[in-house]
Amino acid sequence: xxxxxxxxxxxxxxxxxxxxxxxxxxxxxxxxxxxxxxxxxxxxxxxxxxxxxxxxxxxxxxxxxxxxxxxxxxxxxxxxxxxxxxxxxxxxxxxxxxxxxxxxxxxxxxxxxxxxxxxxxxxxxxxxxxxxxxxxxxxxxxxxxxxxxxxxxxxxxxxxxxxxxxxxxxxxxxxxxxxxxxxxxxxxxxxxxxxxxxxxxxxxxxxxxxxxxxxxxxxxxxxxxxxxxxxxxxxxxxxxxxxxxxxxxxxxxxxxxxxxxxxxxxxxxxxxxxxxxxxxxxxxxxxxxxxxxxxxxxxxxxxxxxxxxxxxxxxxxxxxxxxxx
Length: 325
Hints:
By secondary structure, the protein is mainly beta. The chain folds into three domains: 6-107, Lipocalin; 115-210; 216-319, Lipocalin (Beta Barrel). The chain is built from one helix and 30 strands.
């Protein structure tokens, strides 16, 4: 059994941003020893800078130095002169806000969300894991089992395994962080689940579905099979609070999105009013019209985003590899 180790940083509470200038009682806080987290689709790396007082945050092609800031919970680091970029470390989980956008919960490799939901189909079952306790509605039953205390028996960068014993049965829950589909409509989730009850195993999926879409900027490569104009830029980014934004070819656009059991859709799309070459304006018009017709979104086998319209047309996009779009 392998468990991720933890290294500690000492932050002096209630002091200025320069650690050496503080005289109050030290407060020891921790970052994951993996040195990395995943915030939805965004992979980040964190490590103390050479002087030991700053934290280096790396993502895509960027590296940002953050200063420690006093806080009562976790280890908070803020970009100098930019309070809209901040990182709150809390061991195997963390919170990252980039340029004002609060990303999905950042998890060290293998960790599960602080509130982790799982479902299975054929037969139906559901589970909620929170604070090492589980609420389970087992297969073939409608009565939920509450307050099941879990013991973590395996922790590695691929996932987690939990075990428990109730008065009636023993159980095991295995979580593997791999793309998962469940149900007749093949809804996608970020994790595969195996629930074992008294030796009988049931498959399922789990995790926050928004983690599949949020955290990166998607660069569109194809509009309904027609490709794109050379050197044009069409993007899409899922933001917090159900907001979406991007570049439509010439203009920036913004709007709302809704992700539900029925699919993925966009609404109230609006854009700036710059004028460009007619070919770009036509491509922009087509893109925004297609977005308004989207009824579902999926992740393809190569990690691409596939947005399908009610007419069967598909918008294909890939995660950006740079932060300078």
